Amino acid sequence: MEQEVAITSVIGGEPAQVHNTLFPVFLKLEQMHVLLVGAGNVGLEKLSALLANAPAVKITIVAARVSEEVSRLVASSPLITVHERAFAPADLDDKDIVVIAINDKETSEYIRVLANGRKLLVNVADTPELCDFYLGSIVQKGDLKIAISTNGKSPTAAKRLKEVLNEAIPGSIEETIRNLHEIRNQLSGDFTYKVNRLNAITRPLIENAGARRERKWKKVATYSAAIFGLMLIGHFIFSYIPLRELADNTVAWYGTLDKNFHWIVLAGFLAQLVDGALGMGYGVTSATILLSAGINLSAISSSIHTAEMFASGASGYSHFKFGNVNKKLFKVLVVPGVIGAVAGAWLLSKYGDSYADYLKPVMAVYTLFLGVRIMFTAFRKIKFKKKFRNYRILAVAGGFLDSFGGGGWGPIVTTTLISRGRNPKYVIGSISLTEFFVTLASALTFFSLIGVSHWQVIIALIIGGLLAAPLAARIAGRLPKKWSYILLGILVIIWSLRILVKAF
Asked: What is the distance in angstroms between the CA of the first residue and the CA of the last residue of the chain?
């Protein structure tokens, strides 16, 4: 259960005056019986917090109406009892804690008075003056748990602090705590000696050991993007852009561009908006449109990944800036994803043109599969804490299919990780940053094997994607994902079926 933290400074052995007088307590909630009154959106939030911190807690829910989301959570826990009716005083029998999550202040006050009369602690949602305790934001890394309090004044500030601490505290802290526990059990001597010894051992924890590793990854990304960007610029300058004509008449040069150039810009914008907000959709959306335009397969994937490299770089940086990236997850996925992307790009470059008549319907079937998978994700039931270990295999498969099919990294990797119970916000942010390196590897492979073709498509997609990336990072996790998935899935399915009809 999320508990509040108050910090008391001590001067000369006496507590200093503080504004936050809450006393921090961590409850063994699984030994208690909780009454939750209300099962709407607020009730869902409270229930999720209880189960996230104490999955085996015994909960009784009383509500006039139980939402679909709450019903799904209830189905995942046999220790939850639901009574779909109005509150009755007898509901307080044999309870230890009461959480009230209803939009009725008079009824909330009535329940609180009854509960306090039985010496029960009460939390009333969004009503600090009626609360005996608050449910704060919580950071958990294994056995380490940190609860954050703003004295009930700003849950948003507590939420942001939680995100900062989640990012700042490494996942390896769990192993450190376990090792310190073993060291503590082995130390001999008095209390002072043990404290001093453990202080000396743990001092390196406050040093910024991860700063050098972070700078290394930034340098790799920056130098790689710069080198490839210079290669592209040089290629365009010496091969495609008519410099003399451009100097004489810029408007006339623009007229030489593809007549659908502005529509491709819009497609790049929408594709990146979807991809940055949902963690998927850029490649598969672009691939279906370009397939229907009759562009050869290797050029499709090459154009998409060349354009997506810049867009995913901007998106990844935006997610990193807004604190949406889980560094540990990123490091596990990036190398296998790159290997899969290189393999897929090489295979498509070698056989894409020779077997285009056969591969094009296959690619349309593949994008159709991705569309159905996206639709399925919209209706998939929520699962909690289901362990998943095959991260590297998933990354290799996602990278390979993304290069070979022109898209699929998000629909395959993102939906798999979210369906296994990982936090959608950090999955989307981490996948977006990893996607930069995957698309970079794919684009470099295509560039080395077939050069750069359809540069106008590339430029249009880049422009649209760069414009959308910051906006997409801002709205990540805030859109109604179910309907976003449904609309994206319908779009991909329609385009894929259109391509298959033309092929046959």
From this structure: 58
